[in-house]
What we know:
The structure is a homodimer.
Chain A: H1 3-6, E1 9-11, E2 15-18, E3 38-43, E4 59-65, E5 75-76, E6 85-86, E7 99-110, E8 113-117, E9 126-132, H2 135-138
Antiparallel strand pairs in A: 2-3, 2-9, 3-8, 4-7, 4-9, 5-6, 7-8
Amino acid sequence: MNTTEHSPIVCRPIGRIHSRFTAAEGMPIQTTGAPAEPGSIEVYPEFEPGLRDIEGFDYLIVLTHLHAVQREMLEVVPFLDNQPHGVFATRAPARPNRIGLSIVRLVRREGGVLHFEGNDMLDGTPIIDIKPYVPRFDVRETTRIGWFEAKVDRVGQVLSDARMSPAADGPNTPRG
Amino acid sequence: MNTTEHSPIVCRPIGRIHSRFTAAEGMPIQTTGAPAEPGSIEVYPEFEPGLRDIEGFDYLIVLTHLHAVQREMLEVVPFLDNQPHGVFATRAPARPNRIGLSIVRLVRREGGVLHFEGNDMLDGTPIIDIKPYVPRFDVRETTRIGWFEAKVDRVGQVLSDARMSPAADGPNTPRG
Lengths: 176, 176
């Protein structure tokens, strides 16, 4: 087992989110739960050359650090359910490394600022990567979606709550 | 500007990839370019409880650290093209933070090992997150795919080459 595989990985934020959401509770739990909700990405000046030609894409995959989430759990009761699941079988934010994935619709670019719709992110969320969404790479059709099967249609109604916060009860396994 | 937004983010690998690919050149450039290519995810024992119920899903989103890529560029000539683009308008591996996204088909689970098909990853690649693929969250239909429009159908033919390696020439901007 070599050191590379277990060594910590250090990421530098390339930008941050601007959003009307300033508290982790009461937010949309997926971008498809709030497809018209606006937000913007501020890409820091030193990374702005990386945006060249991004205007040609409808959708972007935004990878973030869910900095406001304070727990990293291995089993979690997700917002859409009342039963615990392994965190890697959920999209819960309170996960090891707290990496978020939000697919947003790019509305327009203004220099280093990308205005988008479909926002489930907190104001100030650090961004670690932006990738263009390409259906040929990113679309998979399947009905095998585990415990989501009976729950997924609630995504537009359910908002986040306090269960990912430090004081939450439940059959969770804090990691560290 | 507070420190959280610019502070480095430290991730711990939750596991690693086992793959027949041991060099970064000559590999598939997307999982849809090699849908039958097998691989496996070894989840480290301390994270194995996080896999509970993952068997119910057909597809997983695997976020990785592209540890073998040595450059982080802002403009890059991607494998599918001969023109430079901003790296955030490409899926090139030589990007800030070198985070990879691979959507794989889960074939079976054996304890902490997830056997999958659709493999574009190098042996030993550290994994920082696994999320279940849920079409209601992750599918977007669009034909606005920028420079990919004329190139995307080559994904099954084109393999990676040396252009992301330290000695590569071209209009690239090494980041530092």
